[in-house]
Amino acid sequence: MRRDVPENNYDVVIIGAGIAGSALAYAISSRSTDTTHKYGSKARRFRVALIERSLSKPDRIVGELLQPGGILALRNLGLGDCIEGIGAIPVRGYCVVEGERQVRVPYPDGFEGRSFHHGEFVMALREKALNANGVDVIEAVVTELIEESASERIVGVRCRTKDASNAPATHELRAKIVIVADGSASKFRKQVLQPAFAAQVEPRIISHFIGLILEDAELPIAQHGTVVFVKGHGPVLLYQISEGHTRMLIDIKDPLPADMKSHILTEIVPQLPPSLRLPAARSVHSDRLRRMPCPFLTAINQHARHTKPGAILLGDAWNIRHPLTGGGMTVALNDVVLLRDMLRKADDLDDWQGMEAGLSRWYWERKPRSSTINMLSLVLYEMFGAAVSSADRRYKDEELSIMRLGCFKYFELGGEYVRGTISLLAGISSSPFQLFRHFFGVAMYAVWVLFTSTSPQYHQKITHQSATSVAPRALVHYMSLLVKSVRVIWKTCAIFFPLFWDEIRWWIPSQSGVQSSARWGGAMFVAIIILLVVVADNS
């Protein structure tokens, strides 16, 4: 690490030494150990400046679970050893819990994830970048992007450092490309975007995570992430991050409770598995509750119409999903793999027209995996976790209850029903249409369970009544089930298709009204096409 700026001209300047920034700096450096890369020794190497405002160990409550798909990307980048020697815990799948019910959802084919303290992983990535030839890791605050007035091209950054005596100094670093990877609360996202679209590209806050660390807690299934469906509230996510330490994340929607500790102790802790209640209560009493927003931001195609030349958005500065599924680092690392390949093949970094063509290919090449993980995060959150607080809460709670039961029963079927679903979550499979099949499979199976599980109990209840009264009551009962089924299917469509439309469109509507109209119009069009395909396939 250095506080001085050794030179003023680079091929690439990267703002942000987090997961994506550090990984990219190493991947495109002149000492990448990626010997299996298809471009071999002829691959391009660059002079890189990696700038971070503070190179001390970060302390966050997310970015602690790396899915198997993320580990594959990490190894592709030559960074596989970054999850060794940091106390990481193997993750072999999930345990889904609601009340007394629980079901194990293992990763397929021996795949494993890793969970760890976020700061340890980031420091391991920074160490690799620091030791790579061609990379200068600089502790500095980037104050602005340098933009040519005539062409609007981003040509560098201005940053502020402090010398050994803490005296501030301002530096100007020029670069052919500036990578903005400064996180979900990006300081420079708007400046990279064209003014006409800057207002439309804003993260949307879905909920908040409250983070705790439980001491010596015993998870229902060891080395498995645990998702607890909490009645009337958002989900709770738990996973072990080191020996003796288990992270607990509690989803809370606005408006936030005035007394958060009391809310957790009375509403959340009693619904946890018995082995977790005492450690959770102890942690609530003794620890400071940490809170972070859970934003969502759809990625945009980075070409001249949307973004200014010379700059590239990366990581959470570009694309954010709900952290419930732990897919953020997997998306970011796979993006780095594709961006590395694109930059290495570039003939001339100064030729932005050629670069735009590469960026467009990058955008579409990443789509299958990133879109699947992005949609899955909100699909699972909205369907199984979102707490509701409106006048129609009774109906929505009923829908959620039906969907959750269907989800449990779907997983209990085993085989491809579990394998296909968890492969999407793990980042191994990358197919939005596979997500569609399983998501609607859960919904349809929930309807089947609704009819088959309630009818016997109902018939047993009315067997002692007269035959003349049974028929009307049975008809009313089945009509009620039919109405509930329609609501469940409608809810499923209302969740999936707007998300699907957001992911497949490549333009940014200039007005929110146009965006809403286009979203639902596209959703209906896609729904009709899919319906026709299904009908044709079954005929």
UniProtKB/TrEMBL annotation:
Residues 175-454 form the Squalene epoxidase domain. It catalyses: squalene + reduced [NADPH--hemoprotein reductase] + O2 = (S)-2,3-epoxysqualene + oxidized [NADPH--hemoprotein reductase] + H2O + H(+). One of its GO terms (molecular function) is squalene monooxygenase activity. It is a multi-pass membrane protein. Its main location: endoplasmic reticulum. Keywords: Endoplasmic reticulum, FAD, Flavoprotein, Membrane, Microsome, Oxidoreductase, Transmembrane, Transmembrane helix. It comes from the Eukaryota. The keyword Lipid metabolism does not apply. It is found in: Endoplasmic reticulum membrane; Microsome membrane. Its cofactor is FAD. SUPFAM superfamilies: FAD/NAD(P)-binding domain. Belongs to the squalene monooxygenase family. Catalyzes the stereospecific oxidation of squalene to (S)-2,3-epoxysqualene, and is considered to be a rate-limiting enzyme in steroid biosynthesis. This is Squalene monooxygenase. It comes from Pleurotus eryngii (Boletus of the steppes).
